[in-house]
Structure formats: structure tokens, C-alpha cells
Amino acid sequence: MTRLVVIGNGMVGSRFVEDLLGADAAGRYDVTVVGAEACEPYNRVLLSEVVAGKHDLSALTLPTPQSPRLTVLRGEQADHLDREDRVVVTAGGGRLRYDRLVLATGSAARVPPLPGLRAADRGDGGGADDGTLTHGVHGLRSIDDAREIVAATLNAQRAVVLGAGVLGMEAACGLARRGVAVTVVHPASTLMERQLDEEAGRVVELAMSGLGIDHRVGVGATEALVEDGRLRGLRLDDGEIVPADLLVLATGTVPSTVLATTAGLSVDRGVVVDDDLRSPDDHRVFAIGDCAQPPEGGSGLVAQGWEQSRRLAALLCGSISGGAELLPTRPTAASPRPSSVGSDVVRLKAHGLDVVTMGVCGSQRVDDPAQRTLRLSDPDVGRHVEVVVSGGLLVGATCVGAGAVAADLVTTYTRRTPVPADPAYLLLPALMPGPASAPTSPDAIPDDATICRCNGVSKAAIVACVHDGATSVPDVAAATRATTGCGGCSDDVCALVEWLSPAASTSKDALGTTAMAFSPSDVRPGENHVTKGKHMNHNAETAAS
Amino acid sequence: MTPLPRDTDTALTAATGGAGTEGVATHCPYCALQCAQTLTPNPGLDGDNGVAVEGRAFPTNRGGLCQKGWTSAEVLAAPDRLTTPLVRTADGDLVPVGWDEALDLVAIQLRRIRDEDGADAVAVFGGGGLTNEKAYQLGKFARIALGTANIDYNGRFCMSSAAAAANQTLGIDRGLPFPLTDLSGADAVLLLGSNLAETMPPSVAHLADVRGRGGLVVVDPRRSATADLAADGQGLHLQPVPGTDLVVLMALQHILLTEGLADLDYLEARTTGLEEIRRRSALWWPERAEQVCGVPAGVLRDAARLLAAASPARGGRGAFVLTGRGVEQSRQGTATVSAAINLALLLGLPGRVGSGYGAVTGQGNGQGGREHGQKCDQLPGYRMINDPDARAHVAAVWGVPESSLPGKGQPAVELLASLGTPGGPRALLVHGSNLLVSAPNAQQVAERLAALDLLVVCDFVPSETAMLADVILPVTQWAEEEGTMTSLEGRVIRRRKAIDPPSGVRSELWVWSQLAARLGSKGTWDTEPTLVFDELARASRGGRADYSGLSHARLDTEEALYWPCPATGAGGGVAPHPGTPRLFADSFPTHDGCAHMVAVDHVGPADDLRPDAPLYLVTGRVLQHYQSGAQTRRVATLATAVPGPTAEVHPLLAARLGVVDGERVRLTTSRGSVAVPARITYSIRPDTIFMPFHWSGAASVNRLTTDATDPVSGMPEFKVCAVDITPARRHLARRETHPEPDHVGTETPA
User: What ipTM, to 2 d.p.?
Assistant: First the structure.
């Protein structure tokens, strides 16, 4: 039995345990999970939905694997690692011996060094410097944070969100949805600058104004203003004071690497790991999720952590029965090593804001002559679509207000399906053209259009049938079997018969319809209504042609 | 304005002069809708078929027929109709022989193989088009005349995922556990992977009212004829990436649960498993689902809210969730159906009049065919073959010791893959199936069939599979025989004989009785369908699919009845059981009466996209053809209307390839390659190619499909694999790497 200890019971840690137990058909692993939070693992991605009031907290709980080979220690802090003895020492003094160790400690909200943010900054001796935030200041990283913010909105009049990355934007929209007046303060010159370039950011700014969300872009904060221990506002670089009784910090995250650092493992921004998610310093130690820094870099997105989790589970279960079997689970030459493709799609979950980006995008991108960039700029309706194509593949896209196009681009990007010969077609919905040129009268319907699908009867066949003497729907039915399947084309056949019969008194008893008969030469707008056949592609509304 | 289905009957009656009083009341030979027909033997009336076909009023088809139904009599007079047994000579020729000679030959070979390698060396492959009587007798013939465990049938390619999921969660598998006509009263119908408008066209009439209320939600990677029914405000069309229907369902569940739209009272009272369902769906928030399935999060929310508003708990008229092969023929088919059922349960639908979950059965007797013992793990009455009580009951009816019954055999794909391999079956008997065309990875199937010592095929036309046989036995078809079929709504209907079969043709019931005698089998081997039905009824008594209260005589005097219909004791003033149009009113047939929700998750296709196969291939039907096309390709009208397969290609993909409408393209997968004309249409996704499956040989899409199977049901993943497409031109110098922007093709009307 191999002893596997996982530190971290969040979205990636719990998922990894499930993946591993699923992949470990031979039952070789004995797994212990150490999780700092006392609650069951939950979906952190949806915390902004909780702030927006769309979700109940109970809807966030994630599946927890059940297995006799699994021990989960909730509410337990890992204090330090003893790599010599291969032991995790917990804050409570417990010692967990491991053969393999997986760090999935995640990341913490970054608190910028602004005076006034921490209770200790008050200087009134009211609190030790224990990291506690000033009353009214919140991160949005944990279920407790979300709970506190929701509680604060009950009394808050004005909120400021500091940082307009993905989380900041979602939080701002969520607070606005709750009826709180919101101002977003973002020091970079563009909203979501990692994802959006200046032009796209401008369109998003307009959309935010439309939602009633105020913003200060390109302006940083210098100080949180505190009175009586309570937040009162934020002072900006330019001297402006934005009053606020609620401040949400969305100023990025910091990988939680303390355990690795103190254990002497290589740590850069995150715990350094190779393509196999293994620390270069200790072959028994792996890191996944937000705390890890793989060669391609960490994206901070859960999709990357889940992909790593699946891969590591396969790797650990394949490698156990011999080194040779390690190879098949590794990326082959045909599919290059885990690139960021597919796990770097950013999709804003925000009421009223439709922003999706992937791959090559954002204000910090580097120009590449091999790439071709196409743009649909339509700021007046809040739309901006940009695609970047290289080597016949979509390598990046920025979508603001793009609707279904964004969903199509994501599938094209993540699955690497071929792009059109002219990539300009990527900028608009490819599935179906609009209903622009539907026929407007029976004579505009093509002769070979199918009128009765059940029996494969074309317009031409019905015309021929009427020319041969049919004067009613039953006549046409008897001769062509049109209308004798589902009956859905009865109205269309009736309309055709009437159109073809200048003598207006066609019998319609069988259908009980009372449509006026007309002749093609006698069409007047708004009259002589031919009932619309909903099952046909054609819009058969009669109008002057 | 919606169509006027009631008046359609009137129009039809006027058109046809009313159902002929001298005609024989029966049902169409094709799909599970089993449209009512009147057959009138009248050589003068309808050309050379000798039988006039008319639609007949019945709740499901309301007198309507599609093109297949109207022309169904033409197969009776197919020019290449088999009318004599054929035996392959040493030279490889098929020569006519007498019945005794053919049967003697088969029996001798079967005995020899059984003596040499044991009973399991003989395998049986059945079909979902066989009558209940034949399906029952075939299962019995395999178990006690041949003594083999190795029997399975083409329903494994059809209903097995839906069956497995329904049995797990609802405790019973009756395709629609409610009358089809119930759909009309609902506010919403969610159709997943079902193209009703082409596969069973007259059924579309039942959707007219729900479309009028804007409530038809169709999930299909193609804008199929059925998806088109949701256009113009009549509902929604969700067009997911192939193989991701399960993601759509997970997202719908997520929305219901997080937005407080689930029917919690119902869930509390009638189900188990909610907590795990809640957690699983917490993983599939709409924005994540969008990235995998390609359906915009906003559309997913609209669909979920539409369904919720239609649900009885929220004051709606009712809602239905229906699944078809599009979502079931997948390696996660059982999981996907489980998710569909879970969704229906979250909405509080099953067991409420005017709401529910159902699987739309495909083959004519796809329902009955899966109840009477053709499946490798089942005995009649939908009993499981490893259940000691079930074995004892059935063995008693059959008059054999329980211990003589074999155990569970291999499901279809495994069975076919083992043919002619060391330790695998050496002989195969095929009934009601053209498996060479209908099974996945067709070229491998052909190799396995060729490796057999003995292949015996019963058919009425020389199907592709029959043409490989060592012995072909000509049998009766629909209008030439009596029997019963069980339609998609679990209703047992009578198939009646209208004309005599050609001389030289025999019923399979007769064939089995003859072979049983030659094999020295125990048991009785009736050849009269009505007697076989009576035995079937006894064997089914107490099973999940209980037919014991039914008989041909009762079905002839009353309107068709829904199973379960248990016997109530003969005479004695006890009223006969009225049948069960709607299931689950009070409880589910599980040990505790609750529906057991099974938590599932998305895995994705077995053969997913890769650089040298960057597109998805999906398969399906066209209106004019049925299954392997063995019947419909022999009907001139249908064969002319749709003479061969085409590959549906989006204009953008066509422009990239530089092919025009009708030009031949080559499709290549890991398993094979076919060249067919391209049909350029906006109805397909640009990353997907659609090809219908009714053709054989070089144009058979099943040369391309994967034989990966669902781990629970054994269903092959027909509906999605990775494919490459190239123009099929003769070798051009070199394909341009950056073709010029081309005009976008326009759609040709259907």
C-alpha cells in the first residue's frame, strides 16, 4: 500500500482525490487529505454568484469521494513538512507519513499594502497585527468571505471594488444586482487588462455604465479611510475620495506556498513543478492547482487545476506498476505537452456583462507575425469580437457582447477544429444565417421545396396536381399523400391550392379554415393571409413582392 | 398558427374514402410508432403489390402514414424476394435446396459444433423487429434447444442504454410510461437526440399544441427537421457539440437546483439520491458547461426556466423529457439517460398525469423485443437470468430443469467480436437483423462473420448479412403473419395476416420447431402465434413486463392494451386487468417504492478529436429509409427519393475544402474510409459531419463508427467519433495550404 497525503481539500484537492481513487483500480493507494477549512469542499468559482444573490450557499457543496482507503481531516492545518522522515506535521501535532505528497494548498487573496486595510493599521491599539481586515473590508476567496459580504450588503449604501480582473468584475456586477451603488477602481489602464486590450476594455466600460456601475480606470488607491474602526471610503491617486462602507478586494491572489518554502522546495511565484507536476527537488512531492507553477505557468483558473488533477491521477496510477507504463500517460509527440490551450478560457459570470476570452488576447500580448488578427468592432451596441488565427487554427479570441459567437469560438479553440478558409466568418454566428430572404408568397417558394416532409411532396408536385384538376386539400391528399403524415403541412397545402385556384370558392370544410382565396395577381399587402407553415424553412407570410 | 391534427383525420378519410371494411386492420412494418394500417388484398387496385395500404385511425398516428408506410406493401413483392432455402456450395455459390435438406444440414452442423466445443459455441443474434411471439420463442430456442448463453440482438444498438438507466432509477423500462397522446397537453417537451420528424413523422402531430405554447426544446447537434419544429418562437433548439448532451443536462440540473426551481416536495417524497445529484451538478455551472458543450449559458438558463415553468409544481400544465438514440448511442449513453431521468425527477414529472420521462423506442418491436428473453441477460417478462426465482419460474413454464438454463451471455458488440476467435462461437444464427450494416466497425464484423464455421440467416430478402451466409432460410414478413408487437408506448397491438406468403416461405416459429425436433430438444414448440403468445403470457406472469392477462383473443376484442396487464384469475366474476396506460402514479417498482437517482458525470467520446481527425462524425436516419435499408432500399419510391448516403457538410467547411454541393468527399477514421457526395447545409455545425446509416458496403457509415461501448449497457458509440474529410478528387498535385476565401455555398432545399 502506498501512502498518499494530499494537503488541501478545495476544488482541486478534492477533485484530485476523486480522480485518483477512480484511476486506482488496483487499490494501491491509501489516501489522507488534510483540509484547513472545517466545511466540505465547495465550488469557489460560484462565490460571486452567491454575492449576486443567485445562489444559495448550499448549492456550492462539491462531491466528496467515499472510500475505505480515504481519510479526510477537515479543519486541520498542515504546519510543516519533514521531508527527511516523509512526514506532514499538523498544527495539532499529528504526524502523517507519506510515500507520495500532493500539495493542493491553493492561493489566498492578495491584500495590497494600502494604509487602513488592516485592523492593525488603525493605530488605536484595537487589534494585534493578526491580518484581520478593517470592518467593511473583505476579500472574496472563501465561503466565509461570501457570507460576510452578503451580510454587509444589507446595510451598505456604497461599495467599492478594488481591482477589475475577473473576480472584481463579477463581484461588482453581483453587488449592483443587489442594489448597492458600486464603483470599480482599477489601477491599470484597461479593465481586465490580462484579458482585454484597450478597445475591448472600452466597450466593457460602456457596458458597465449601462449597468449603473461607476468605474475609475487607470487610477490606483492610496488609502482606505477609516472612522471609528469602520470603513468610510477610499482615497485615490488623483486625490479623489470615493465614499464607501463596503470594500471588496479583488487585487489578485498569492499562491499558498509556505509549506513548500519552509521545506526547502523550489518556489517561485508558486511551487515549481515539471511537466509531470513533480517538484524538481523531491521526486515524492507534487503540486497542482493554484499553488503550483508548472512550466507553462499557472493561470489561476480551475480548469487548469482540474486538468492537472486528472493527469496526475493517471500518472500516479500508471507509474505504480513499473516505469515503462509511465510513458503512455504522458503527452505524445502528436499532442504537444500540456499547453494552456483549453484551460485558459476566461468566461465572466456576471449579470449583464458578456465577456469571453481565450488564448492570445489582452493588452499585454506580444505581436507575432505568424498570427492574423481579425476584429469586429461594434461599440455602439456593446459588441467587440476579435479572433487570432495561426496555422489554420484559432489561437485566441476576445468576445464582448458576442452572444452565441463566443460559445462557438470556445469550442473551436479548445477542440482545435479547423477555421474557415476566410476566418472573417468566425466573427458572426456560423450555424445558420438569419431569416433574411425567406419567400414571402407562395409563388416565391422554390418549385422543389418540400411542402409535405412526411411524404416527400414538393411544391411542384402539388402545382401539377392542381393543374390536373384537384380543387381541395383532400383532392391533393388523395393524389400526392401530402398532409397524410403528421398533418402539419395542411395549412400550407391549403394555401397553395387557394393560390392556384382563381375561382375563390375552394372548399375548405375538411380543414375548417377560413382563409380568403386569392390569385397571385391580386395580392395586396396585409391582406390575403397565407398561414405560416411553422415546420417549413420558408416564411410564407403573404406580402407584396 | 399550429396544424390541425384532428381535422387531418377527416382530410385523410376523405382522401382515402375511409378505411375499407374488407381490409385487414394491422400496423406498419417499420418503426415503433406502429402506425395503424388497413391492408386490402386487391391486385387490381394498387399495381403489382397485390395489397392496398391505407392509414387507419389510431391514437398514435391519427390515421396518418409517412412515405415508408404508404409504400410498405412494395417489399412484399420485392423482385429478389427469397422464396426457397439456399445453401452455399463448396464453390461458394448459393444454390436452392428443399427445406428438409436445409434444416437437416443446419441441425447436423449445430450438433457437430456443440459436441466439439460445447453449447456456447453456437450463438444467436435476434432483432427488435421480430414479433413478441418470435422474440420469445427465439430466446427459448437459444436457451433450451441450443443450450447456449450466447444470445443477444440488435436492440443492443438501440434501446440498451435507455433500458439500463430506466431500470436503475425507475425500476422498470417501458419506453414511454404514458400514452403518446399525453404530450399534447403539456407546456414543454424536451427532446434529446431524437429526430421524430424523420424517424416517425406522424408522431409530430402530438407536438403541435406544445409548439403552439412555445414549449418544444430540442437538443441536437444538427438543426434537424425536428429541431426546425422549435423555430419561430415555438421553442428552443440547443445545438451542442457532439457527445456533450450529458453536459447540457448537468447544466440544466444545476440551474434548477441553484435557482430554487426543483420540486423539493416531490423529491423528498418520491426519490432518493438528491444530495449527490446536487453536489455533482455543482460542478456544472452554465458558464463552464458552455465551454464544453458549446450551448450559450443564457440559452441553457432559458431552457431550464422554460421546463420549470411547465412543471406541475410551478403551476404549469406539465412537461416531458424524452430521449432518443442521439444521446443513448454513446459510451456514456446510460449516464446520459440517467441524467435525463434525474432532470425529470428534479422537475417532479414521472408519475404525474400529463408529465413524465420517456425513451422514444426506435425499432418496430424494440419494446417487446427487449422484454421476452432475446437479451443476453434476460428471461421472458423482463426477468433477469441470474435471478434464481426468475429461472425457476421460466424453467417450469418451459418444462425443463432450472439448472439446465444457461447463464448470462455476452452483449452484442462483444459477442460479434468473439465470433470465430479461439474459444468464441463457431456458428451464428441470425434472425431479423442485418448486422453487417447495422453493427459498428463494419469491416471487422465482416471479418468475424467470415471466420465462422456456420452462418445461418433467416430473412425475407437477400440482405447483406444473408449474402454471407452458409444457409439462408426464407421467412414470412409482416403482412403474411399473425402476431403482436409492443409499440413505443408499451401498448400490445395485433399484427394480422393479410395475404398468404409465397410458397416456399416459412414462419420462423416453424423453423425453430423443426430445428428443435432435429436437435432432440425438450419442451413444446408451437407454430401458431396465438399459442406461443399464451405461453409467453404465462412465462411473463409476475415479471416486470407482465402480459399474463393478455391473449390474441382479448386483444382482438378490445383496443390495444398497455402492459403490465396481469391475469386476474379465470372467470369467477373477477374483472380482467384493464392494462396500465400510465406507470408510477403511486410508487416506483423499486424495493422501497422510490425512484433512485444515480449521480453521473461527463467523460466525453472515446474517439475524440485529434490533429489528423479534427471533426466530429455523427450518424442517423433519413425519413425515407429504415434501419439497414434492407427493406426500404427495395421500394422504388424511397430508393429514388434518397438513393444513397451523403455527408452533410457546413458551407464554411465546404468552402475550406473547396468542394461544391454534390461533390464527392472522403471521410476517414481510425477504422475505415468511405467516399460519398457532400450535401452542403447550414443545418450542421461547422465542426461536424452527418452521415445516415442505411447503406452497406463502400457507402456504409459503420465502416467509420467506433465499437467503443457503454460500460453499463454495452451500447456502441455510434453517434460520435473523430473524422477527417478531404475532397475525393483524383490525386491533385497538392492541396493548397491557404485556399482563397471562397463564396459560401447555399443550402439546397430538402
Answer: 0.86
Residues B522 and B417 in one domain: yes
The answer to whether the Cβ–Cβ distance between B1 and A448 falls below 8 Å is no
Task: Tell whether B385 and B532 lie within a shared domain.
Answer: yes
Residue of A nearest to B277 (CA): A63
Residues 159-198 of B with CB under 8 A from A: 197-198
| Amino acid in the structure at residue B141 | F
d(Cα B711, Cα B716) in Å, to the nearest integer? 10
Q: Which residues constitute the domain of residue A166?
A: 119-251
Q: Which residue from A345, A511, A534 is facing B7, i.e. has the nearest CB?
A: A511
Report whether A160 contacts A185 (CB < 8 A): yes
Q: Which of A235, A251, A267 is the last residue of a domain?
A: A251
* Average predicted confidence (pLDDT) for chain B: 91
User: In this predicted structure, what is the pLDDT of residue B18?
Assistant: 40
> Cβ(A519)–Cβ(A500) under 8 Å?
no
Considering the domain architecture, whether residues B355 and B385 belong to the same structural domain is answered as no
pLDDT for the residue numbered B10: 39
Instruction: Indicate whether B749 pLDDT > 70.
Output: no
**B338, B169 contact by CB (below 8 A):** yes
Residue B54 has pLDDT above 70, yes or no: yes
| B643–chain A nearest CA distance, Å | 14
Mean pLDDT of B576-593: 95
Q: How many contacts, defined by CB atoms under 8 Å, are there between A and B?
A: 246
Counted residue by residue, chain B has a size of 750
pTM of the model: 0.89
Averaged pLDDT, A209-231? 94
Domain match, B303 and B354 both: yes
Q: Residue B299: its chain A contacts at CB < 8 A?
A: 404
Q: Which residues of B touch A490 (CB under 8 A)?
A: 3-4, 7-8, 11
Give the pLDDT band (50/70/90) at residue B572: low
Which residues in chain A have Cβ-Cβ distances shorter than 8 Å to B655? 420-422
Interface membership of B240 toward A (CB under 8 Å): no
Count: domains in chain B: 4
Query: Which residue do the cell numbers 476570452 mark?
Result: A357
Is A61 in Cβ contact with B282 (below 8 Å)? yes
pLDDT of residue B48: 52
- The most distant pair of C-alpha atoms in chain A lies apart, rounded to whole Å, by 102
Give the cell for residue A41: 469542499
- The rounded percent of chain A whose pLDDT value lies above 90 is 63
Output the CA torsion A96→A97→A99→A100 (10° steps): 20
